[in-house]
Amino acid sequence: MTDLITALGLLLFLEGLLVAMFPSRIKNMLKSIEKIPNNKLRISGTFFLIMGFLIVWYIRN
Fold this sequence. Notes:
The protein is an all-alpha fold. The chain has one domain. It is 89% helix and 0% strand. It is flat and about 40 Å long. It starts with a helix and ends with a helix.
C-alpha cells in the first residue's frame, strides 16, 4: 500500500513540475489534443497503460 501512495505522490509531483515549468506549452498541448480523434487517443492511452504495467512488473519481479 505504501508503494501505491508513493507512486501517486511521484505522479502528482511530476505533473505539477511540468505545469509549473511550462504553463503555456501545457495549454497549447491541451488545445491540440482536442483535434486528435478519440480512437487515436484510446490507442495511445492503452499503449502507455501496457508499457507502464510492464515496467512496474519488470521492476517488481
